[in-house]
Fold Tyrosine--tRNA ligase.
Amino acid sequence: MSTYQSELLNLLSSRGYIHQMTDAEGLDALAAKQVVPGYVGFDATAPSLHVGSLVQIMLLRRLQQAGHKPVVLMGGGTTRIGDPTGRDESRKMLSDETIEDNIASIRKVFRRLLTFGDGPTDAVMVNNHDWLGQLGYIQLLQEVGTHFTVNRMLTFDSVKLRLDREQPMTFLEFNYMILQGYDFRHLSKEMDVRLQMGGSDQWGNIVNGVELGRRMDGQELFGVTTPLLTTASGAKMGKTAAGAVWLNEDMLPNYDFWQYWRNCDDADVGRFLRLFTDVSLEEIAKLETLEGAAINDAKVRLANEVTALVRGPEAAAAAEATARETFAGGGLGADLPTLDIPADGTTVMEALKALNFAASNGEAKRKVGEGAVKLDDAPVGDPNQIVTLKSGTTAKLSLGKKKHAILRR
């Protein structure tokens, strides 16, 4: 493991955040002698970010912990364009009102993980629509367009992969990398931001911004990317068979969020503790040595720590208590996801889909056929079985050993 002179790069390196850096020596020297404002951009395509974005939010948290200034860039402007990176099709266009509502909703999670204010290392949140929305097209072509060649842009993975698959890319999307580069240049001029961070798929866009700042202003800028995050099974972080693991509580119940971490692969526990919690490296090293059933203690610690950071300590405590009561005591934990059913009842199949336990009728039927579905701990043999309840009563619907929900009327 490399040893740096700055606390920032030592912290990022020791906890596994660094994949690529544009100029490690230069950034290390700068971070050792002064406060470095650094930013990560987040587009507002939904009312919540999901777990796949959490490592980038934690990057900003680490930046602040090391005595530097986090800048959260909300993509009010770039959301209107759509980043083609890693996508096979164009992003759905959202209304201005929807984008603003999404930004307001997304803001909540940052308030938990960062300290905002007016101090030199306090976090700030900015919206790139404030400057991109004022940028004239002719002005953009004259000032910025001359620094980009189509030849180079065609070599970027975000463009190349789409074209290789013969998937159409609109001229609108083709401009995304130019606008992202302009964001970095604008922030460096207006807020002295010297560092952009992001996932490994953003490397090309970040390098564009570094070069644009040098060409237009003679400014030395830096970029850092994190490794592509997958689970030990190879699945992309933040995605499950039931859908995205959202960071906001109104998009995913606290218990489901807690369970996502509790159910992680044994091989992922140490890495996730380093990336997504503030548990010390010494303690993580001890937790990584646990074997057999004892590794579950480390998973509970992981689930509690991440849930407390993202949802609050009360949410973590309630989720753990529910898990303990549901699994150990055979009871019905109060924090389980709930589904209100009508007076005339609902089918097991519809309940499974409504709870995101199954994505389709076919999957629900398959789970029932496998004997994985239970109602009040009794196996369900027919996916079309009607569940009816008296007013004020509840029942427990289970999928396998780890997914449970309360049906109520």
